[in-house]
Amino acid sequence: MVESAQTFDKLPSVQQLVNHYNTTLSQTHLRELLNDENRNQHLRASLQNQDGSEVILDLTHVKVDEAAVKLLHQVTSDVQLHEKIEGMFTGQKLNNTEKRSVLHVALRMREDETLIVPDSTEGDAVKNVHEVLKRIHAFSELVRSGQVKGYSGKTLKNTLILGIGGSYLGPEFVFEALRQDASSKQAADGRQLKFLANVDPIDFNRAIQGLDIEETLVVINSKTFTTAETILNAVTVKNYIINHYKNLHPDVEDTQSFVQAHFCAVSTNLPLTSQFGVADDRVFGFWDWVGGRFSVCSAVGVLPLSLHYGYENVRDFLSGVKSIDDHFRNTHDLSQNLPVLLGLYGFYNTHVAGHNTRSILPYCQSLLKFPAHIQQLDMESNGKSVTKEGVRFTDGAQAGPIIFGEPGTNGQHSFYQLMHQGRVIPAEFIGFSQSQTPIHIDGYPVSNHNELMSNFFAQPDALALGKTLEQLKAEGVPEFLYQHKLFTGDRPSLSILFTGKLTAFACGQLLGLYEHRVAVEGFIYGINSFDQWGVELGKVLAKDVRNVFADKEKGQDVDVKSKFNPATAYLLEKYLEKM
Ligand SMILES: O=P(O)(O)OC[C@H]1O[C@H](O)[C@H](O)[C@@H](O)[C@@H]1O
Description:
Blueprint: H1 12-23, H2 30-34, H3 37-40, E1 44-48, E2 54-58, H4 66-78, H5 81-89, H6 125-144, E3 158-162, H7 169-178, H8 182-187, E4 192-196, H9 201-208, E5 216-221, H10 228-248, H11 256-262, E6 263-267, H12 270-276, E7 283-285, H13 299-309, H14 311-330, H15 338-352, E8 357-362, H16 370-382, E9 402-405, H17 416-421, E10 427-432, H18 448-465, H19 469-474, H20 482-485, E11 493-498, H21 504-525, H22 536-553, H23 566-578
Parallel strand pairs: 3-4, 3-5, 5-6, 6-7, 8-9, 8-10, 10-11
Antiparallel strand pairs: 1-2, 2-11
Bound molecules: 6-O-phosphono-alpha-D-glucopyranose.
């Protein structure tokens, strides 16, 4: 049991693990570990889907042995992992600094399930979720079938999503993931979905380029409806639409009707959406127990994705996430619980083996935005240095890793050099047995997908096994190149293989695996994975700079030297000269 004043690194099981790694495993090459099939068979887990497909997690390329696995399981009981997981499904206030439940799992529950939010007047969260889902279903059908039209009577074929952070990255990841999925592609035929996230005016221009605004429905995605970037973008788009129609109809005075015809919103802040001019029946709500980065299964993702891909495809996506929720909650044999294993081995690579980075490498081009989503999900959740109870980590203990990634094979021609011969970066390979869009060129020995996947299987071994001096000598490599061509190997990775295609359901499963993995790692570190105080300071300081710019834009004299440190004042003055 973790004492409130104790940090995770002081737990006996964690210390024994670190000790075991330092004394034994750090000196045991992965080559040796991988040869032991007895060991390997305990490092595979899989989830069988109803259609016969499987999600397989292969942990054989992580630097663990039987003793390490045992200690990792001891860690799960020391941190009371099972109880914490259950707390997440029953609405405990796991987000203690904001006094909130963490209930994104309720977004995926079936209509016949019930979840009464503790200490709240909200009642049954599942009932409320399904009410919003039904409204989205009906509304998206009306828009897609052309029954709800834009101001000028045109069908709303385009959706423009405004939002940033959790109100952007998740929807974009799923949008890209399903673009080449046969069923989603067919449903999106003739439609466009675009994103506007950055407050940079360039992003506004990129978003509206080639967009017929009369055919566009704008979705403002903002949990708080106070995020500076999103609100400025919303006002910018609103002005653009009003000006567009004013030019066409100079006599119309009621500009509000332009706005009402083209905007809807997803938010928890109804007073502000109405103040902005969005009609109340075009606001789709969610709840403070859904964190921004966990909100893709709320209206934040479901509304725009249903407008674009149709509700049925989005429902399949939600079912995929739900299948992982059930697996996560009900698989008590933790050696088969995929999100728990991902969390445990993530923690192991970061804290025990001491690698501070992690790369996410999907061998599927449709997942090109997955690493960016996981970056926010993981780094904003677990990038903390203090326990839930407010005890600061000491002695160099650190939570959450630095995350980056790119689809394979593109990454291989970019940063893999460093991963093979530079720093050790635990890698996560994600692959599918079948392609969304198979191609086989006559005369080529394998299909294009198999060409891709041959790399998926080769890379973990290249990282782990490396290439020895003996091999180089046997190949006749000239002596002066020995050190350059040497691969030390011993570099850990894990692989996730979906034995089907990237469907909406599989996409949901992938999301569920990583959402829960983040929670598991947070539970082990004993941190609050569900707040994000670290993003606040920059926002506050930007206000001071903004005030200076505002004075200057009004033509007033500004004195930056008295307001900023000399280093920043110097650069600001240079900027102000040419602003
Ligand atoms: O949805 P919003 O309230 O507009 O918030 C958008 C984003 O901004 C904040 O700065 C947080 O760091 C994110 O977690 C959040 O997703």
